[in-house]
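Tokens in:
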């Protein structure tokens, strides 16, 4: 198979895994050309110097594709509208970043006439599934190379040794060798002391948190922010409309400064094992809190309850890498319909890691103070009607109790 593969497109981040994969591919597929592709979903300075590094390690060229706007508007926002949280905690930061990157890699691989696509995902993780399901959706005949499933390297320590042997510069050491993934939405941390759930994350250790501070280090004075939505999409901060990238960057800064959005969880990976990770999602946590609050006054009970049931399934699909599937698209169609009236302003108070609701307004609010009030109801609700309703609603319970009593007394 290696003799047939002459051109490989590699999903490239410049991190530990993909840095050593370029020379590994050159060694194991003699004469092959390696083209590196970096999907920019908000890694920031991590893309600095990437082209020079990729070429020095053996790539013929590097594509850096700016996917930030598309990432937010076509992946983050539909997931936010769905209220999807994996296992009710994880805001899916890595999960929905993989399909958009993989899709662009497929497009470049086709344009370049590549024989194969390679990635640096481990054989234990979720990302291998997310990348490869997307590749199968858009290039079902494409050869996929996953070195972690075939090479002799067994750990990140051995990866560092390989990099040192090949003279590949790294930004990490054995002591700071957390496995991290960063984009506009979040930053994840795995490995080292975090592999034992008994160990408390070192939030106050310099260099551990990158998007913000721990709640203890946050200001003693709260910050207020108002998020405006149109049909479930955030469009303005404190009354100022802005583009999607700038909006998220502003909320990340504000949330990070106030210790917002830290999640420490043991999650169930798709492959079956449990893993422990720490996530920083400051802006995302604010958006989820604001969106959830706005739905409480703009969705009727039955729609809200059904949507809450389906949000877990939506989260599973995203986590499992099934973005480009009919079922995910069908759920998104349902969600879009529910968002037609999710328009309004949500004011939140941010204080030492807490998000506290301060105010809700919407032109489509279903909240009627006259109906809900404990005082005069203005004729909109007759409390005497409750007696007949309860009698009918409780009839099955009453009948069962009567029949049970008769059977016991025979």
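Residues out:
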């Amino acid at each position: 198979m290696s003799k047939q593969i002459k051109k490989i497109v590699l999903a490239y981040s410049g991190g530990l895994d993909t840095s050593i994969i370029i020379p590994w591919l050159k060694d194991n597929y003699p004469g092959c050309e390696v083209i590196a592709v970096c999907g920019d979903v908000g890694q920031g300075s991590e893309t600095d110097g990437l082209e020079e590094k990729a070429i020095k390690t053996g790539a013929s060229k590097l594509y850096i594709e700016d996917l930030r706007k598309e990432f937010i508007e076509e992946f983050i926002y539909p997931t936010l509208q769905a209220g999807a949280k994996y296992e009710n905690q994880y805001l899916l930061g890595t999960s929905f970043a993989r399909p958009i990157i993989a899709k662009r890699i497929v497009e470049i691989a086709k344009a370049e006439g590549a024989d194969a696509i390679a990635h640096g995902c481990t054989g234990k993780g979720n990302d291998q599934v997310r990348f490869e399901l997307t590749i199968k959706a858009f290039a079902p005949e494409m050869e996929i190379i996953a070195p972690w499933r075939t090479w002799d390297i067994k750990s990140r320590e051995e990866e560092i040794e390989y990099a040192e042997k090949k003279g590949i510069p790294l930004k990490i050491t054995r002591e700071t060798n957390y496995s991290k993934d960063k984009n506009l939405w979040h930053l994840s941390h795995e490995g080292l002391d975090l592999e034992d759930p008994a160990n408390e994350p070192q939030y106050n250790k310099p260099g551990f948190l990158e998007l913000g501070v721990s709640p203890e280090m946050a200001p003693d004075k709260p910050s207020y922010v108002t998020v405006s939505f149109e049909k479930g999409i955030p469009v303005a901060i404190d009354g100022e409309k802005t583009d999607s990238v700038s909006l998220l960057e502003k909320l990340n800064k504000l949330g990070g400064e106030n210790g917002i959005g830290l999640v420490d969880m043991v999650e169930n990976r798709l492959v079956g094992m449990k893993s422990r990770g720490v996530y920083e999602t400051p802006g995302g946590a604010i958006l989820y809190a604001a969106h959830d609050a706005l739905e409480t006054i703009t969705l009727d009970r039955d729609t809200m309850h059904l949507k809450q049931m389906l949000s877990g399934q939506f989260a599973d699909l995203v986590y499992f890498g099934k973005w480009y599937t009919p079922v995910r698209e069908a759920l998104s169609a349902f969600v879009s319909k529910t968002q037609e009236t999710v328009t309004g302003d949500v004011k939140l108070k941010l204080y030492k890691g807490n998000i506290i609701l301060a105010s809700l307004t919407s032109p489509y609010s279903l909240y009627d103070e006259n109906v809900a009030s404990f005082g005069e109801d203005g004729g909109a609700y007759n409390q005497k009607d409750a007696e007949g309703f309860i009698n009918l609603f409780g009839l099955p319970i009453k009948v069962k109790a009567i029949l049970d009593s008769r059977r016991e007394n025979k």
